[in-house]
Input
Amino acid sequence: MSKHPSPRRKKAPAPSPVSLKKGSPPSTSHSAVAHQYARHIASGAIPACLEVRQACQRHLDGLAAERKKDYAYRFDEVKANFVCRFIEAMPHVKGEWARPRPGHSTLIVLAPWQVWMTCCIFGWVSKASGLRQFTEVYAEIPRKNAKSTWAAGVGHNMLAADGEYGAEVYCGATTERQAMEVFRTALQMARRNTEYERHFGVEHAVKSIYREADGSRFVPVVGNPGDGASPSCAILDELHEHATPILLDTMRTGMGARSQPLLIAITTAGSNLAGPCYAMRKDLQKVLGGQIQNESLFGVIYTIDKEDDWTSELALRKANPNYGVSVKAEFLRREQAKAVQSSHLQNTFKTKHLNIWAGAAAGWMNMQSWNACADLTLRLSEFVGQPCYEGVDLASRIDLASRMKVYKRVIDGKVHYYLFGRHYVPQDAANDSAKAHYAMWVQQKWLVPHPGPEIQLAFIQAEIEAELPRFNHQCIAFDQYSAQQMQQEIEKKVRPDVVITLPQTVAMLSEPMKEVEAAVLGGRLHHDGDPVLAWAVSNVVVRPDNNDNIFPRKEHPDNKIDPVSALLNAMNRAYNANAAQASIYATRGLREL
Output
């Protein structure tokens, strides 16, 4: 929360809860503040990490698109302003701003970043129904940036002013102490704001805030609340501490009877890369990066970029949106200095104050650079008859399988690569609601569905054999886990040594991975915008060994990388062909005079 009102708007008299009726004229345009904050982030006027820039650009893109007839959403300023005003009618309950003193208001004043976040969540609605666009929120914000105060205000709005009859608002966590963190703040707000309780008919007990008139309640919950819960709002605090998705899944499934439920995960970074928090974080990163579509998920991650110096003040400002307000600059600089001096303090500092996940492997690819390599005019038919290097990955029979073709052209003395993929999925997997992106890609013809629960190898084999007369295969490289019978049957129909088995080892894949990355950064790699391949590329992480060798890995079983495995099988042969073709005379510049 901001100590002073935003410099972009004058401080108006704090509205009393009695005046907070939907449709009443706003006392201040919070929406304007939200739009301005997004523009300042997108333009670089306010330093921010990639994920924050992407989240703000997503908001601005929506504003630019909302007037189009085929765009499904619109921004409702009245609804956005109302919730901001509602929260700002709540009092601070701890710290210097909560202490009553002459000439000083104890009411909350939202900082511009909080205004933006609130307006996005509550302002974007469906044109058809008027209901909120976003039903899930992931907010990763470092410690002491007023997450709990903001979440408590949102919880009160969802209890009393969202128009949901019999609202059920839960503060969920793995321990009672953590569950009470947001709820205790909300309870103290209610106790100190008798006008709010009187106006909305709200009462409170030791561990419950409720409204008798319609049975609405706001309560803490630890672990699994049981199948009887029907949350209209679930606030999951410090999601990184959840070892399993039980509470998250229970809340999600319990929201089915609500017209516009809201699940909010607020957290700092953590260390459990196999938990539901890191999975939700990765999903959001893919939504923000455009690798998958999820119009119902809103989120923001305040952290630093990979190239940033974590010991700098810029890093502190980027990761801590309330820098110098609720989290003191002197405190952060002091903690940073301690971490620089003592290596054992570095992980804690980076995780809790910079939102760097402990133990997280580095992402392999710069996805902005990858996306820049897309050429939507590319057609496979343009390369018929040219030397083709194909990689096949059939390791998974119950999920994705892929084939990738790689072509080479020399332009201005540099080798350029052109990629074309074909990907397969069992229909049962495509129908899985947890894999909605599969169904979308099937509809868009980027994924080929196979009936039933597993990949039909005979179908893939028939496709490869049908292509042999058209494509000039220099090599078809299978991973060692692929179907041996298929390989043997295809071998009979091609030249000797065209079909090979490629061991999936560092020795075989490190150099092709480095060449792909170099080609992307150098603008020498071209793809047709294949979203399945882009998603797989974004899933790849690397942990270089002592010799700087790399190998494709994934951090979660659901983060499939099969298309990348097929690509690297093909690149192994294409890249080695480059080396074989470069004679000692050419590489040393010994040409004819």
